[in-house]
Amino acid sequence: MKNISLLFCATVLISTVSFADDKKAPEKQAPAAAVTASVKDVTPQEAENILKSQKDVVVLDVRTPDEFQSGHIAGAKNLDAQSDDFAEKLAGLDKSTTYLLHCAAGGRSSRVLKRMRGLDFKSIYHMPGGISAWEEAGKPLKK
Q: Are 125 and 98 contacting, i.e. CB atoms less than 8 angstroms apart?
């Protein structure tokens, strides 16, 4: 009986200490949340409106150079997600700049988005439908 009482007291003590530590956890995590990227998925219409209203947004097209040459959003920067030096080039971009990220249909840009978050980019608009959705919406392409 004495062992059961000791076991009960130890369990209550451990639970109390764990609960107290849980209350402190958000304070410990707050700084990490402060550096989390602001990411928003946008439609082609929203993307076009952003580009018209925010002149400092960089369009980051992560398709291959051949895909890019076949038609791209005016002023876009091409950074081929499949190139050997992609990780190095991505890491070298200004992380405080706001980017509008897209690829052909959303697969590559979704993977790049995860990398950008891991590299602490601050502000990213992601067009998950890619240039295909842009074209389907009747938006202009530069060739």
A: yes
User: Which are the contacts of 25, defined by CB distance < 8 A and separation ≥ 6?
Assistant: none
C-alpha–C-alpha distance, residues 28 and 70, integer Å: 49
- Say if 143 falls within a structural domain: no
Confidence of residue 118 (pLDDT cuts 50, 70, 90): very high
Average pLDDT taken over every residue of the chain: 84
The reply to whether the predicted model has a pTM over 0.85 is no
- Nearby residues of 40 by Cβ (< 8 Å), 6 or more positions away: 124, 125, 126
- Give the three-class secondary structure for 46: helix
Domain count, the chain: 2
Q: Are residues 119 and 104 in the same domain?
A: yes
